[in-house]
Protein 1
Amino acid sequence: MADGFFDTIADVGSEEEDDEDFDEATAERRQRKTNGENGFEDSSDEEEEDDEAALAAEGSGFIVDEDDEEEEVRRKERRKKKRKNRDRDREEALDEEDLDLIGVEFEPKEPGRNFKRLKRGHKERPSRARGVDEIFSDEDDVVDDLDDGRGGRRPLENEFADFIEEDQFEDDIEDDREVGQPGISLITSGLQAAGLDEGAEEDYRAAFGDGTEYDWAIEMQEQQDAEEQGEGRELQLKDVFEPSQLADRMLTDADNIIRENDVPERLQLARKPFKELQLSKEEMDVHLTEEAQWITALLWPKKGLPSYFARPFQKSVRKVLEFLNVEDYEVPFIFNHRKDYLIHAPTDQQDDQDDMDGPPRDARPERLLNQSELWEVFDLDLKFRAFVEKRDALKQIYASLELEQSDSTLDDLIDKAVTIEEVQELQEYLHFQYSQDIKQARDADSEANGAQKRANNARNFYDRLRNYATNQFVALVGITPDELARNADTTFRAGPPHIVNDPPMTPEQFAESAALAENGSADSVLKNGKLLYTQELIVSPRLRRLLRGKFYSNAIIDCLRTDKGLRKITEDHPYYEFKYLRRQTFLDLHGRPDLFLKMLKAEEEGLIKVHIRMDGYEDYKQKLYGHITSDGISEVADAWNSLRRDCLDGALEKLQVAIASGVKETLRARCEEELASRARENYYNKLDQAPYKPAGSPPGSIPNVLALSSGQGQRGDAICFAYIENDGRVLESGKLVEFRLGNPERGIPDGKDIEHFVSILQRRHPDVLGISGFSVETRKLYKDLQEIINKFDIHGPIYEDPDDGREKSDPLEIVMVNDEVARLYYNSPRAAAEYPKLPQMVRYCVALGRYLQNPLAEYASLGKDIVSIPFVQEQTLIPQEKLLDRLENAMVDMVNLVGINISEAFDDPYIGRLLPYVCGLGPRKADRLVKAIQANGDEILTRFDLLGISEQDTRELKAAMGPKVFQNCASFLWILYDASEEISDYLDNTRVHPEDYDLARKMVADAMNMDEEDIKAEVDDGGPSAVIRRMVREEQTDMIQDLILEDYASEIERKLGNRKRATLETIRAELLEPYEEIRQNFALMSGDEIFTMLTGETKESLHDGMVVPVTIKRTFQDHIEVRLECGIEGGVSESEYPNGVGNGGAEPRQVFQPHQTVRARIMYLNRKALTAQLSFREDLIKQPARKDFNRIPGEWDEKQEATDKKAEEKEKEIATGRPNRVVNHPLFFSFNATQAEEYLGAKEPGDVIIRPSSKGLDHLAITWKVGENSYQHIDVLELDKPNEYSLGRQLRVGKYTYSDLDELIVLHVEAMTKKVTELTKDEKFIKEGRDSAEKYLEVYCQANPKRSMYVFCANPKYPGYFWLCYRAGKEARPGAWPVKIIPSAFEMEKSQYPDLPSLKNGFKMLFQSKMSQAQQRPPTQSIPRR
């Protein structure tokens, strides 16, 4: 039965062939065996016994000789290679379609009888079981032996032909193939068989190759496959993890190269897209000098320094470039340890005695480059690399052409190019003029390198245009594009201008003569000549450079709204400020990069079109006409001048579009750079704050913090807290529920959690309380905490008063903490991993405490999420990669300013997150650093341990980095000085770089007046830093201030050639106070920042004059308390009530109810107290304040704006079927239904407005307020209208007709209002609705089981209708009848009742009648359901 599980007719190469069997005895997978060439599966035991016998023979000592084994391997490799060649030849063999493609005639072969001998059956062929190493092998000897180059299955009618073959066996065939004619592939033999002559064969091989072009690649792939499948290969990470996982963990081969290469990581990543600079010293000097000039030209105009600093500035830039490119120093190292080269001092003039343009001798020292400008130089260095690579590639192509006569345009402009745009234009010009030469040069280069020469005779469009006639035509124009540009560019023109001469015949005459000579068409000659000359104008690099210069100096930006923008950009839209903006220059956009980026964003959304044009374009085009035309006065001259102008017009039209596009993208990049720089500066300012410092504590100390938050501050929300020790541990946390102070005068006790909170304060003694939250309720928590601290006399840490030396303590300080980091942290996976047992709001408090203790580490912990924090308005307009790069630069600067205690960083993951930002390091090298320290026993005693160098012979250390990386990072990783450790070096605890240790030791020895013998004795006894250890031990560090550092600096520069004046100042400062805290004090939040944090509003989103929705809280006679949507508490004074409310009118409580939403205008917004004064006055609400953009006359298209508004009104009329109709009545408003309801929301019930109707010009709509949040809309049909815009003489509402609006309002609306009032004032009216009414009836009938009851309630779904709800006893079901309000009556069950008593009596009579009818009616039989 086992045979039934196998497919005995499987094809060769079928999927079943590689399937595995399941061994039931061993519960393992075993490889299926195949038998025969067709891969028949064989389940017989015979072969299994053969296999077992073979295994037994091998186990009993039959060992294959190594030589035979090697020969067998070589034989297999040859067979494998030949098989692949055969497969390739078979794929490349010419079929009928191929021969037809190349135009070769062929005759189809008649099927012949070439098979003579029966093939040996599969049972004659011994099967060989595959070994374990061959399970997944592509090699199949069974199939190989039978492969004769004809793959695939035959048709069914010829399937038995497989058993007949030619008069040769496979072995003979194999031998014939091995000794066949060398160099003749199946393609070649196919061509010969096809009867192609030598020329046709050569064309075919040139087009398609001869099949051997990629043998080298096949051999490399085979070698690689053999290496990958080799035995004994060590298991690698890429064998276990997916490539994406390795990339995420930075464990790819490329990451390992970066990790091990002794170059700063950030430099490696930045330079990755570029070639490595491999220049000699002389070539590097030339390169750096050119680059310094290039960068100086870009940076110097922005500096604003006196002109005599231009040369020192360029020298400083060149030195920085030398540090970056030759020494591989990072920006923080250059800024901190090469700052002397960034400052120009008067003593620097001694180097340039002949510099008459330099700064005066008495000029004060000037910082030439600050830290942010160093990063800019770094970025420009990368851009210069890209520029030089592109320019060098252009030069290489140009040189490879070996032109007989060089191109003067290229010779002149290549070295003058200063932007990638200009190089690109030169490259386009080169390819246009010499496309065929470039192809020939590439073919020659390929042939020289041994690559196959491909036939590529394709010519571009303009190459096909070039012939004798068109070239002659272009020459007869009389002026080349380069000569035109030279004539027009009067600034740089040397020599007299080119004179344009006219030929003796008109363009048409020349075209006719040329067409006769070449048997062509005169029109085509004329057309092709104009096209060719126009294109020469377009690709002319000199003309493009000239036009671009004019474009930049005279560019005008217009914003043209699209049809979509016309509808979408309304007056309250953020894009409205530039919807009709016109004639903006680059100067107008200066300082407002966000404006232009918003324009481009609006353009991407299809709302506007940003059109950049050249101001005075037509005038400039007329000037170009004068340079391209001749002065001749004849029909011939006029004809040629007309042609020249036409060609110039066509070229200028295309050039203007291309240049405008380039200008737009260049301006976009500059605006993005400027906005990103602002974000970097603001981020740097946030990083530049030390931990919160309690009074009396030393700078840099970390406080103990108790952080609290009320979260959203909603009713029932608990107050969460967390106590964080100064070492970062969370020692206590919890929730405070009853946390309100009592009122002794009213006998209200304090909340029970206040006592618990006070006990925590007394037990933990925090240095500061930090609070924050998500709503304005946080402000109340702040005030409550102040009262608790004052009431229970809670004080902060004790400190010594600097004035009188007495110990004192201040009341415990409460700080409102910036929570932008905490909001990103508290619900993140990282927070859940660090504190899995803490609630989210407690994690939020932990983040607040950490921010007070270490703002720098908190921002660093965000990683790439830092871009989620807004640092400038419209930050989302900056590309994320560019923004992240700038923000990371700021973090790098600050981390290296502060330094890192390496002993803490490698052991504490929280501090360790700062390591990648250390100069010279990065995430990969920081990881290597940590692992090296761990391999060295988690111990690091000196900075030189990082290099694997130890003063103790007994310590064998693993190097954590190379010398170059160490040079960059050494001074920013400090080790706490331990006087009890002999190997501990005091300088390792300072910002002094190890390269300056000897200089620091010399300064200390001189300050202590030690001679050489004293120094030698001290060093021999205590090591190189023994002198400094002695100074520290004897507390004589103040002596270092007596040194005259100018003399030191002069001596060092004279002897060593190094500038060290600023370095000496650093050494002195560090000897006095190692790694002094030089950041700004902890930044307390400003009122505006607190306002934005707690409300989510900014100065732009909420300000005085805005009309906003508010919710009524409480109503009083003289004021109303309200709440804005953002949580701000507001008040409306009596003077700001609407007309008819207060001052003898309706009482406020009758008009405004709690929880009602109404519109109000902000009169005054107190951002510090989070309160607002508002107005309900209708005249103010109708006129909200508009934002004033302070536009210059002429820059706003007011005419277009007015036209669009008029068209919008007309479109609205067409859409609604009515114009903006105006009716002369005090109650008429041009409102829609929603606006009418919103307007009446603050009115009394019964108030009414008249408004246009959407049903047409013969209708009006009347909206009146039935009750709270209930409004009825009445359709009024106008009859007997004098014209379509006038009011009808008869007004009909249903079956009621009135003569005018006043009569309609009095007799219809007011009459219904009286009935509504009559009903709602009745004792049986339930205000809460039908559910409450039925609940009332249920309770009443349960108390009075045998009595019936009815009540009235409103029907909110249908304004103007009410429910009469009833219940006839406890056991009866509740019911309800609708009651409709009509003028002067109630309508129920199609009957009208003039007053409420009549309605009640009518209900009783109808109900009794229906009950009687129900009792007399016989019971109905149930109808069976089908």
Protein 2
Amino acid sequence: MDRIVFLISVIVSVSFLLLLPHRLWQLSQRRVETRDSWHGHVKAILAVVFYCLQITAELVAPNRFASPLLATASPIAAAGLIFLSRLEHKRSVRPSDLILIYLVSSLVCDVVQLMVPSLQPLDGCTGIVLRTQAVAKSLLIVTESLAKDSTLLDGGQPVPPEEKSSIFGRVFFLWVNPVLVDGYSTRLGSHNLPNIDHALSSEALRAAILRAWTETLSTSLPLILAKSLFTPFLSVILPRLCLLAFRYGQPLLISFAIRFVQSANETQDMGSFVILAAIFVYTGLAISTAVYQHGLNRLQVMIRGTLVGLLHEHSLAAPSELYGDGKVLSLATTEVEALETTAVMFHETWAQALEVIVGTYLLARQVGWLWPVPHVIIIVCSQISRYVAKNLKSRQTAWNFATQKRISMTTAVLGSVKSIKMLGIQDAIEEQILSLRHQELEKAKQVRWMMVIYNASANALGMFAPVSTIVLFAILATLSGRSLDTETAFPTIAILALVTHSANMVMTYVPRAVAAYASFERLQTSLQGARFDSPQEEAPRISSSRHSSSHPEPAISIRNLVVPSNHSGGKNILDGLNMEVLQGMVVACSGPVGGGKTVLVRTILGEIIPLATGMIKLSTRRVAYCAQTPWLPNQTIKQIIYGPAMDLDANPAWYTTVIRACCLEQDLAIVPGGDGTLVGGQGINLSGGQRQRMALARAVFQRCEIVVLDDPFSSLDGRTEEQIVQNLFGPEGLFRTLNTTVFWITNSTHHFEVADYVIILDGNIQEEGHWSQLKVKNHQIAKLIHHDDYDTPHPNEDTRRVTKAAAGNVSDASNANGDLSLYGYYFASAGVANVAFMMACNASCAFFMTFPQYWVKWWTQDEGNNTAFFVTGYALLYLMAWVSTNGIMSSTILRVAPNSGLSLHRRLLETILRAPLFYFSSTDIGVILNHFSQDIQFVDKQLASSMSALATQVFKLLVQVSILSTDQPIITITLPFCAAIVYVIQKVYLRTSRQLRVIELESRSAVYSNLLETTRGVETIRAFGWQREMAAENMRSLDLSQRPWYLLLCLQRWLNIVLDLFVAGVAVGMITLCVVLKGTTTGGQVGVALTVILVTNTTLLRLVESWTNVDISLGAIVRLRNVERDTPQEDGAHHGEDVMVGWPSAGKVKLDNISASYNENSQALINVNLEITPGQTVVICGRTGSGKSSFLLSLLGLLNIQSGTITVDGIDLSQVPKATIRGRCFVTISQDAFFLPDASLRFNIDPSGMVDDDELVGILRRAGLWLHLASGLLSPSGEHTHVEEAEALIGDGICDSDDGSGRLSNEIHDISSTRSGAVLDKPLSLLPTLSGGQTQLLALARGVAQVKAASRTDRPGHFNHPYSDNASPTKPIVLLDEVTSSLDAVTETAVYDMLLDEFTNRGHTAIMVTHKLGAFAARMRPGRDVVVWMNNGRVESVSPTITTPSSPHLV
């Protein structure tokens, strides 16, 4: 033994010397990091002392086994340590790992030599030297481990605490202690969390995956991911092999200890070796587990950062999508989170398979030729695992897809909640989302059944394999005249437990790997889709002299451009287009709805893919773009205008000029926060006009060479519009001054005068030239353009409405201190009976899984007298355990999880959709989406399982402690002490982990919001060239999210190693007692105790982990309950009263002294008195901020009514539920058309489902949309001849397709009738794309369908009111909010004709807000219809004509 200790000591020294030169070279290349201090001097002195002691030891007590060369290894190593210590102290921010490993290894050899009696030195002098040497090493270890915070030089980059920590601090997670102290004593926040390792930064991870994506020829995303994380991926292999060795050291230790206790001839040295072996095995097990798990945690964080970065990069580069901005969120929440643990699955699979091989070898040594018995059961069970793996992928994919559909629709709904409330379709939307939720749970049920089957198989393996092996061995032993002895039984049980557990884990990870591969495929398919590949070619830059050149170069040049339709059989949207725009020119483009104007804009920006033929050439890649629907991220007004690439303190004079030019001064003067006001998600805190002017200001502020404007003035009143046009396009306008090239989509005639060139577009350029030439050239051209004889100020929905929106804050206060009521809340949602059955199965399982250990003790003491009895009892115990585990699994994932998930989702959805409008303006959409994604997924996938696991571990621990106390009564004395330690540990841990989890969820919401904003604004981002800035913003938000998550994972590892060391102490203490008190303990008692400790260690860890998981998952319940409890509701506790059947039947509206506000600081209407007679059409006019749209919102119950009453047909609206008001009393057609892309066309135009197919087709035909929407499905063979002929007859697709021509019209009608159901049932996203004007026409068609649905007296109680056969039909009031803002003159005329036919002529009262009165003037009925002029929230006058009043405030 002395020789072995000496050889180990030499190996340690030689290894240190071999590594020393490379480390010295590394340090010599670095700069000095620390200043001189007492710390460095003390280390130098101790190093010299250590060297002297090494020399002294060799002189005083030379080893008899040592050659002269080997004898010098230790002194030379000590000398090298002196130089290395000095250099490490000066040039490294962390203590030296090499020095500490060398010193600890050397100290272990000294301790062994001093503890084992036969190795102790015989003479006193040698003993003194060895003990002094051990003390010097210990002191040197302590000083070398100290952090260097106080000695680090200033001016360097901040070093994360983990990087500054010693190897002991990293292995035992000592650097986490300050976080624990802060979390226990104070409130943690993102501002006081320490930074994490630089290797985990989003920037580094993003660069690595993009480099691997570019360089790797393989298209396999798993291989690309492995390449980008190659080094950290391999770094966990060594600690995993060590973990394997220490795990199988446990059964060997059990056998060793039993043999020692039972043998009367063992020496004192053997007892010392048993104790040292226990220390080595259990300490090594704790350390190797911590290092391995920490490596996997780092990989988990890296995988998430890598995939989110890759997903965001793809969203910046992929083609923009008109529909489905929830797709990227679904990929981030479902697929990426499913792939975070892929490294765990990979490493555990090979490691567990290796453990099976090692365990089989050890098992063969114990039971001989019976070793194949468990493998037979493994093979049988693996067939079930194979079946599950084969069928799981498709089911998991279907579940993920169903989840994506639900989240995508929820995202779309939350982004347009104002429109939904105005339309009165929130009940229908709720039913639609709940239907998707039911479909999602049905798909989940198929996966869960597969997991129940697999669980039964896996548990059968874990229970019946040990039973079969032990039973067969006992029977054979009995037949041969022997009995089952403790030295065979308990080590065999321990080995079998490890083997079957490893085999189980392999079969567990196989289905999980298959499910993960499905996520890989889906993510890879998305990433490998058509990437953004701009067809633009950048022309050489024009020098600054171009301003004076008589021959300016073209800024935009298009040749032979052909853009095909996005559906089979459709005609080209743009066909052979040729266009050239010279630098500095302002070109106005006009044309009919669907003529390709927006498509041309997107093509210029490089957004239309595929581009069939043609060439686009721009003088610059960076283009200022103002979209028809502006993209406004949830930032302050100033941040939006400046854009992400500019410092907010730069160019204040230019900023003021732009604000003035875009008429934003008055808006900024009114809002409390000025330009520091948050605009809310998608600009919800702004009116339509304010959103357009802010986007326009952003485009102007950037001073790009080319500006593309897609109808940017459609929501502005005439006065504001005219002023902005002159400020920008006039002779002294900003665009003229900057010599900016402008391509401008507009249909307003009077603006064409300021343009240098006008293009009339309808699939191709129909006419072009200066407007003075075109306006008299062709009557058809003139008809396409607006002639606004009457321009009135357009509503800005009251500029005072802009309020500073506070970011949503996820409150977790009740959970921070523990709240038992949460369990009641959750159990009620899951069903008390279901929970009770689950708990009963857990208790039963815990008993039947643990008691067999004690049963084996009795069996081994029986000496073979009752083998049949013990065999039968042993088998029955495990059979009952197997039945219990199946009951746990089925009750947990088939009853508790789906019931609670469905109930809590329904309550959450009802709460959110019934919240008032101001809730959405003050709560970030990412926070709300977190509830529907993260929190609901916690409920679906984690909470029930965590609750069940916690119950199982609690019951198991109770049974194990009872058995251990019975077997070793002396341990009972330590139970209160152990319980107190565990209680303190979990209390400190849980208080901090809860806070970190809350911070992580809040910061994760920011990542989701960033992904959503990028997806929604990708066209604008790419046009301005802001990809790099948006990537930086994503990396910043991702880093903020990764930090609390990584700290939470490190906190879990801290908990694991603390509990592992605690259990190791108990085990070592028990073995020490057995050694010291040898002769008073039997081998059976030792075997039971060590076997129970082996599983108690796991149980204790699983208990705290389960407790933690339950606590974390209950955080989701806290948030869901808080949302339900704290979110204000529109109707409050008073839900209104039922109204009479057929209400409203006349449509009389009366506002009596109404004052309303958006909030307490924002007055919208003041003492408004107005009476509207039945069937009357009222046009609301006024200048910006006069209160026109506020008037409509007050009618719909979206504003706070401070005083006065609104009655409809004599019924006070304050007594009627808001849903009834919006869905029955009013039908709203808004300029912000809202549609669900993943829902069917039928649902989008008839959410109530009350209108039959023929009527829906007729409405769409009347709106001129049916042929366009049905063009891809009219002919089963895909031919489109009929469509082309019909369009030729109908002309522009605007007018009614029934033109009276006879045969062809009837033929088209017959074809469309036979296939109308297929068109109506098709998702809107799969139908031909609609232009902005066509989208507005579809909104009008929906309004007509809503009126028809509301007017029926034979419909079922859709509004929960009784209907009688003789009830008069409901006649809803029609609200029109800028319904023609995006339409050309011809379509506008057709729309007004349709409004008259469907609403006015049928006796409906109509209230219209518009600033385009030219086309409507001739349709006003003298003596009946009126114009209401508003100013500053008051009704200024009521006029029977549209003549502008003389009041200067209204002009």
